[in-house]
Every structure is written in C-alpha cells, then in structure tokens.
C-alpha cells in the first residue's frame, strides 16, 4: 500500500498542530464504532483491518508533503519538523476481521500520543467503513444464495480502482467465492472468475461459430454466454452442440450464463434442454444487476440456478451505500499516565459516546457456543456471574438486566504496539472461515434479511455510571 498519510481532513492537521503547542505530552484514546446497520440489518461484518495496519506502519511524511503543508501557512515549524521525523508510537486493539459486530461496539481502539491519534481519523474510517460495508452486503447476498457460489463481478462499476480492489477483498470476507478483478485476485489470493462477454459472440459471423472458437481455445473452461440473441431459441441449442463436440473429444463442459431477460423462466427452459441433452451436470449462472432480494426471489420461484455473478449492487452496496462509522475520543491522559474518560454530549442521547478504555465481550450460554448477547465493559473490569448490565442503546426501555450462567469471550485483541505486529493477519479465506464460524454462533433470527431480531448489546453498570457522571458534570 502506498503511503496514505495525507489522506487526512485538514482539521485533523489543524488540531494536531494545536496539540503540539498546547498538549504536547498528552495521550489520547479513540474508538471506532457505528450506530446504524446498513440495509436495516442487525449486524456488520468488520473488514479492512489489514489495510489499516499497513497504512499505520507506513505512515510518514516526505519532503513534498512538508512543503505543501508549509505552503498553507497554517502550521508552526515545530509541528512540521515533528511530521518530517514522524515515528508511529501508538497501540492498536481491534476485533478480528470477519467478526459480526453490533452498534456502539468499539471495533477498533487506538491509544497513543494525542497528536498522532488525531491524525489517523479519516484514514482509518475510510478503510474500515468501506470494506465493512461491502463485506456486510456480500454476507447478505451470499446468505440469500444459500450454498450456491457467488462471484464478485463489480470492478467496472466500483467508485475507483481502490474501491474495486479492496471491495473485492471485502466481498470474499463476506462470503463470495471468487472475483472477476484480476488485480484483487493477484493481491489477495482470490480465485479469478469469468469467461466471455457479448462482444465475443458479436465479433463472429454467428453465435455457433463464436461458441466453437471459444471451445477450441478453452476446451476445459467452456462456460458460454447464451443471451446475446435468444436464450432458448439459439443460445442454449448452440451451446449444446458445442458441449457435445467437447464431450466427444474428452472434455467436460462447464456451464452457461444468462445475463438478461426473465431469468427464472429462461433458466427453467435451459435446464430442461440441458438435461434432455444429457448435460445435467452443466451449471447455470445468473448475472445482471442482482442483489440479495432478487436472488432470494429467483430461488423462491424455483429458478434452477447454480451460481451467481453479482456486480454493481454488491461492489457499491447500492441499496445502502454508507456505513457511518465514527472515530471518537474516549479518554486523554493527565500527563502522568492516568487516563481521564471523555464523552461527546449531544442534544440526542442516541449520539452519546461511551467513555474510557474498553473491551467488548461476546456472551455464550454456559458450556456452549451459542451467543446470546454482547457486553461493553471498561478494560480493567472483570465480568462476574451473575452480572448487572444496562442496555447500550440509551433510548431503550427497561434498560437494567441481570445476566446469569454465561461464558464471556473478549473480542478486541492487541494488533499493533508501535510498528510491532501483535496479531496474525490471515488471508481472506481464513477470515471468511472465521466469519462463518462467528455467524453460526449467533441466533439464526439475527441473520434474516428482513426484520431480523435485535442482538442485545449491554454495557456494565460501572461504564454506565461513568457515562452518567460525565453527563452530570456537563449539566445534562
């Protein structure tokens, strides 16, 4: 990854310059969390941590950066000198990629010099918000598809090369099996997928010739696009002719793809024709502006589909294109190493932040791997059984709860200590496997695409009381 230190909103530089003058020795603690789940779901699949780690390890300013910042005539020379000699000196803890997380939970925490931690806000949010959004959308789509493979096809509709490439990575974390994006396939070890476009068929005198020539070049990868002219009258019959030729020469046909029209009816007709011709093992792939709702509708209608290729609605999360993750100050030091909790007060209690250095725990029914709630606690707290807790949503009614008979597993783990890596950064399919395991531990009703059950998130009484005391101090 290129150095992204200048991917920073100006006010972060302005504040950091001010800290250099007024609070040079202060330490800060910032949390990344979100309040709203895209597409009215119940959880988000966190992704992008590996790119955050790489960006922080590479964080530096070259001479052209310093010259540009000096040209703005906003910053003191001692601040510019600090940036020119920048050394990352923070600690990062995070919830592993692929984990389903819930509103208000700190999925990443950075602790270090206040000047430094302030500079990372935009960069960290850019990376985590985007990939977590796409991973969450991919989870919804692959959930709708059941056990059928979903190929990520969205590079040409993504909002720029970076979104296409890291979006493909996130899509695999969310459950996709492959990508059409060769750069993403190369960078992240993802299987590449895709055969022909309509242009191939149109480039030849007729459809049959186009299919035959493809089969000559790719006899073991004969997946044919059958909707250039007419799926059932020409596309599938011509594909069957070529498949017979391939089979006679000892090759196994792969499948057909339908990219337009009434996919349910066309797939039914194609399946019947293929089966009658002795090609019951040939796969049918559907594409064409699909999303989780279209996929679910097709399958509910009985469409005999084996695979899906999904592009723009996945790579842009078109139906809910923003994850509004935020980066909020939770504590500062008093210059002697003691942390002072901080809170953001708003006219709406819904936007209150949780103060202090924290940990997130997933609670399981004792002796099982069946999760039933999460608890946000202060970092130095020990969870006792039974445990008095308060609902994390400040707008909830009947907020107080008593929880008994549980096992608690901490979700955040150390990731960076300075530039020293403290955790593994696994490949995308290991992350995907972890995510599937964590999803299997949640109540199945939380996974529904429509009206999912809310997964309870609580805070400890001690954390709740700390928040209330800070509110009282502000006269709220």
UniProtKB/TrEMBL annotation:
<dbReference type="InterPro" id="IPR013785">
    <property type="entry name" value="Aldolase_TIM"/>
</dbReference>
<dbReference type="Pfam" id="PF04095">
    <property type="entry name" value="NAPRTase"/>
</dbReference>
<dbReference type="InterPro" id="IPR036068">
    <property type="entry name" value="Nicotinate_pribotase-like_C"/>
</dbReference>
<keyword id="KW-0808">Transferase</keyword>
<dbReference type="InterPro" id="IPR041525">
    <property type="entry name" value="N/Namide_PRibTrfase"/>
</dbReference>
<dbReference type="InterPro" id="IPR007229">
    <property type="entry name" value="Nic_PRibTrfase-Fam"/>
</dbReference>
<keyword id="KW-0597">Phosphoprotein</keyword>
<dbReference type="Pfam" id="PF17956">
    <property type="entry name" value="NAPRTase_C"/>
</dbReference>
<feature type="domain" description="Nicotinate phosphoribosyltransferase C-terminal">
    <location>
        <begin position="358"/>
        <end position="466"/>
    </location>
</feature>
<dbReference type="InterPro" id="IPR041619">
    <property type="entry name" value="NAPRTase_C"/>
</dbReference>
<comment type="function">
    <text>Catalyzes the first step in the biosynthesis of NAD from nicotinic acid, the ATP-dependent synthesis of beta-nicotinate D-ribonucleotide from nicotinate and 5-phospho-D-ribose 1-phosphate.</text>
</comment>
<comment type="pathway">
    <text>Cofactor biosynthesis; NAD(+) biosynthesis; nicotinate D-ribonucleotide from nicotinate: step 1/1.</text>
</comment>
<dbReference type="Pfam" id="PF17767">
    <property type="entry name" value="NAPRTase_N"/>
</dbReference>
<dbReference type="InterPro" id="IPR040727">
    <property type="entry name" value="NAPRTase_N"/>
</dbReference>
<keyword id="KW-0662">Pyridine nucleotide biosynthesis</keyword>
<dbReference type="InterPro" id="IPR006405">
    <property type="entry name" value="Nic_PRibTrfase_pncB"/>
</dbReference>
<protein>
    <recommendedName>
        <fullName>Nicotinate phosphoribosyltransferase</fullName>
        <ecNumber>6.3.4.21</ecNumber>
    </recommendedName>
</protein>
<keyword id="KW-0328">Glycosyltransferase</keyword>
<feature type="domain" description="Nicotinate phosphoribosyltransferase N-terminal">
    <location>
        <begin position="6"/>
        <end position="129"/>
    </location>
</feature>
<feature type="domain" description="Nicotinate/nicotinamide phosphoribosyltransferase">
    <location>
        <begin position="150"/>
        <end position="330"/>
    </location>
</feature>
<dbReference type="GO" id="GO:0016757">
    <property type="term" value="F:glycosyltransferase activity"/>
</dbReference>
<keyword id="KW-0436">Ligase</keyword>
<comment type="similarity">
    <text>Belongs to the NAPRTase family.</text>
</comment>
């Amino acid at each position: 990854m290129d150095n992204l230190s200048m991917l920073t909103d100006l006010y972060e530089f302005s504040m950091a310059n001010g800290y250099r003058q007024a609070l040079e020795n202060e330490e800060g603690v910032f949390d990344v969390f979100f309040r709203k789940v895209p597409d009215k779901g119940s959880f988000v699949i966190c992704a992008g941590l590996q790119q955050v780690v790489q960006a922080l390890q590479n964080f530096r300013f070259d001479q052209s950066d310093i010259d540009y910042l000096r040209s703005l005539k906003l910053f003191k020379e001692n601040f510019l000198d600090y940036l020119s000699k920048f050394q990352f000196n923070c600690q990062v803890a995070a919830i592993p990629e692929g984990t389903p997380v819930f509103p208000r939970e700190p999925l990443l925490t950075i602790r270090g010099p206040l000047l430094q931690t302030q500079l990372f806000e935009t960069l960290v949010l850019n990376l985590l918000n985007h990939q977590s959004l796409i991973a969450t959308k991919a989870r919804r789509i692959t959930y709708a598809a059941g056990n059928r493979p979903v190929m990520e096809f969205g590079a040409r509709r993504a909002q720029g090369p970076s979104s296409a490439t890291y979006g493909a990575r996130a899509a695999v974390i969310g459950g996709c099996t492959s990508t059409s994006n060769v750069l993403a396939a190369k960078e992240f070890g993802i299987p590449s997928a895709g055969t022909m476009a309509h242009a191939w068929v149109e480039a030849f005198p007729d459809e049959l010739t186009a299919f035959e020539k493809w089969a000559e070049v790719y006899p073991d990868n004969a997946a044919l696009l059958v909707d250039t002219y007419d799926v059932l009258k020409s596309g599938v019959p011509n594909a069957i002719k070529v498949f017979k030729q391939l089979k006679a020469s000892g090759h196994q046909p792969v499948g057909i793809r339908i990219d337009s029209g009434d996919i349910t009816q066309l797939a039914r007709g194609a399946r019947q024709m293929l089966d009658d011709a002795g090609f019951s093992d040939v796969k049918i792939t559907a594409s064409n502006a699909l999303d989780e709702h279209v996929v679910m509708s097709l399958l509910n209608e009985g469409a005999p589909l084996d695979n899906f290729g999904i592009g723009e609605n996945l790579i842009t999360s078109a139906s809910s294109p923003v994850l509004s993750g935020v980066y909020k100050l939770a504590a500062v030091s008093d210059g002697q190493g003691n942390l002072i909790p901080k809170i953001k007060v708003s006219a709406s209690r819904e936007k209150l932040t949780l103060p202090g250095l924290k940990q997130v725990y997933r609670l399981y029914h004792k002796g099982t791997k069946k999760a039933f709630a999460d608890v946000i606690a202060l970092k130095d707290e020990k969870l006792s059984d039974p445990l008095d807790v308060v609902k994390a949503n400040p707008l909830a009614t009947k907020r107080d709860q008593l929880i008994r008979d549980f096992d608690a597993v901490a979700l955040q783990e150390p990731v960076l200590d300075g530039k020293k890596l403290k955790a593994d950064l696994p490949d995308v399919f290991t992350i995907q496997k972890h995510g599937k395991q964590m999803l299997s531990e949640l109540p199945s009703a939380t996974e529904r695409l429509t009206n999912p059950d809310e997964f309870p998130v609580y805070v400890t009484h001690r954390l709740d009381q700390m928040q209330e005391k800070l509110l009282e101090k502000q006269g709220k």
